[in-house]
Design brief:
- The protein is of the alpha+beta class and 262 residues long.
- Helix content is 19%, strand content 47%.
- The protein has one domain.
- It contains five helices and twelve strands.
- A hairpin with a 7-residue loop joins strand 8 and strand 9.
- The longest helix is centred in the last third of the chain and has 14 residues.
Length: 262
């Protein structure tokens, strides 16, 4: 199973560069829960819109996030139709399955440096935990833990606009994964959103993010989750550009059939 990986949320700062469109090229790897292998892709940001393209074999999966319009579009290069999600309604649905008050989060500098994509990145150790109902069932509560190192390049080009987009999306309760998967694993989706929230105070762009996701529970849930196993994902940025992007990049191609989803 190939997943699109969205990089992190960053804070706004007057010291960061002026407004500009942002393009990030990255590679992603993952394993666990039926996912394996490596994908390449790109993330494009223009104002309150973002597009991600993930290439797997001869197919490209595209996701467009329109925060102002509260719509998420998902389509691939093999079809001429796109699924359209009402994210205002979806955010309300997911919030019913997650106990936000149970959230515990920390992000601490580890004093390490690392060269990534020709830039010097600073290391941080991250951990986020929260309780959630698996598949929306309150009788199947589990604890999701997301942890791992994050490598951030301070004051990187495009950081301010990267921050503006994610800040607006997080404030409206958005998630940054396929809603179909989030329905079954709402805790995982919301834990990732909280990770973005924790990174908001750092500034810069994360050039490498490693997420190790563990799920635990008690009683019957413990055995079920042990069989499912854990999952890890790593995304590494190869380059960042700030050239102007066209508006049509952030909408499904003309003539595509739009399929409303709930």
């Amino acid at each position: 199973m190939k997943l699109a990986f969205i990089t992190t949320v960053l804070s706004l700062s007057l010291a960061l560069p002026a407004r500009a469109d942002v393009t990030l090229k990255q590679n992603s790897t993952g394993k666990g829960l039926g996912m394996s292998g490596t994908t390449s892709g790109a993330t494009y940001i223009k104002g309150n819109k973002m597009r991600t393209d993930v290439v797997a074999g001869d197919k490209t999966q595209t996701t467009i996030f329109d925060v102002d319009g509260q719509k998420m579009y998902i389509f691939d290069s093999k079809k001429k139709e796109a699924d359209v999600w009402d994210m205002a309604a979806f955010a309300q649905e997911v919030s019913k399955s997650v106990d936000v008050s149970s959230t515990k989060a920390s992000l601490k500098p580890n004093g390490q440096k690392k060269e990534i994509g020709g830039k010097t990145a600073s290391g941080y150790d991250m951990e986020v935990t929260m309780d959630a109902a698996m598949g929306g069932s309150k009788d199947m509560t589990m604890t999701v833990t997301l942890e791992g190192p994050v490598w951030i390049v301070p004051n990187a080009p495009g950081a301010a606009d990267f921050a503006r987009f994610y800040k607006g999306a997080v404030e409206k309760g958005w998630i940054f994964s396929d809603p179909r998967a989030a329905k079954g694993q709402p805790g995982q989706a919301k834990a990732m959103a909280e990770m973005y929230n924790q990174l908001a105070a750092i500034g810069g762009i994360p050039y490498e993010t490693e997420m190790n996701i563990k799920m635990g529970g008690s009683g019957p849930m413990a055995g079920l989750l042990a069989k499912m196993g854990n999952m890890s994902m790593t995304q590494t940025v190869q380059s960042v550009e700030t050239e102007t992007l066209t508006d049509d990049l952030f909408a499904p191609p003309a003539g595509y059939k739009l399929n409303p989803k709930k």
